[in-house]
Each structure stands twice: as C-alpha cells, then as structure tokens.
Write a structure and sequence with these properties.
Distance between the termini: 95 Å
Shape: elongated
Number of helices: 0
Helix content: under 10%
Radius of gyration: 29 Å
Mean pLDDT: 87
Strand content: over 45%
Length: about 180
C-alpha cells in the first residue's frame, strides 16, 4: 500500500544562484589579406570560349572589343592552355591592390606585347614591353604603388598570356617563374 506525504511551507526564501553561462566566443584572428595571387591555364586541355567577361581565381578579365575571350592550346609552352590576348587588348581587374605584377607571354608576330599597370583612377602608373621578336616566352614585370588593374595590348592577334602573378609588397624578392 503506497503512502503519500503532505508538506506545508510557511516561508519561502529565494536564493540567487548563477546559471552556468556559455563561454563567450573568442573572436577569430582575422585572416590577413593575401599578398600574392597567381593564375594560369596550364591544366586546361581543350580550347574554349569563356565570354567577354571571365572570372577566375579572383581575377576578372575583360575583352576590350566585346569579342569572347578564348583559352587556346597552340603556342609555347606546348600542351597547356593559355589566354588569347586579343588584338584590341585585354583588361584585367586584380583581386587586390598590388605593388608588383609579373606575367609570362608569348607571341608570334613582330608586334610586341605591352602590359600597362593602372591605378584606381585609370592612370597608367607603370609599363613593360617585350622585344619585337616573337616566338619566345617573355616575362613582363611592373612595380608601382596602387595597381588595381592591368591592360595587355599588342602581339598582332597572335599573343597568349601564359600566367600572371600579382603581389602586394614590393620589398619581398619576387622571381618570375622559370621556364
């Protein structure tokens, strides 16, 4: 047989008791902005059109004549993709404000390729030009403070961009890619 119990209280005292609080989340250390970004098409194994505006790895490529940009396989180095640098030029918006730009190009005419570095106002703040002798790979390098975009021109419609690297700091020693 179950027995029940009854209790009566005359006074009740409420005592504060702290509830366990969740440990506040510690702020994550902010990721430093990148100081280097590179792009190439070496793994591309087929030619293709990529549109008049093409984005890859934080870079934005824009055709200056509104013809589609193309990834090509012909030319040096053999067996890898390269971006066709159209006769009218290709503008490249960088993933961050850079101080140093290094690109590898090849062309097959007597018209040299020029890379111009532009600041946020569109002013040319640096340039580099290949010799007028085609059929070889050339490294073009520009150092200037505040590079936000670059412009490739020349090559007589037979110029190819092999790779492109941009750097934030000029005081670091930067070596172009060896071929």
């Amino acid at each position: 047989k179950a027995r029940g119990a009854t209790a009566f209280f005359d006074d009740v005292a409420m005592l504060p008791y702290p509830c366990p609080l969740k440990e506040p989340e510690r702020p994550q250390p902010s990721q430093p902005e990148p100081d280097r970004a590179c792009i190439d098409w070496a793994k591309e194994k087929r030619e293709q059109e990529v549109g008049t505006v093409y984005k890859k790895d934080g870079f934005t490529f824009q055709a200056m004549d509104n013809k589609p940009l193309r990834i090509m396989l012909w030319g040096l180095p053999k067996g890898q993709g390269k971006l066709d640098l159209q006769r009218s030029g290709v503008r490249v918006l960088l993933p961050f404000v850079a101080n140093h730009v290094v690109s590898s190009v090849v062309f097959y005419t007597r018209t040299p390729v020029t890379i111009s570095a532009l600041d946020s106002s569109g002013n040319i703040i640096g340039q580099a030009t290949t010799p007028a002798k085609g059929g070889e790979i050339y490294n073009l390098e520009v150092k200037a403070t505040g590079i936000t975009e670059i412009l490739f021109k020349g090559g007589g419609n037979e110029a190819l961009l092999i790779d492109l690297c941009v750097y934030r700091e000029m005081d670091k020693k930067v070596e172009p890619k060896k071929r």
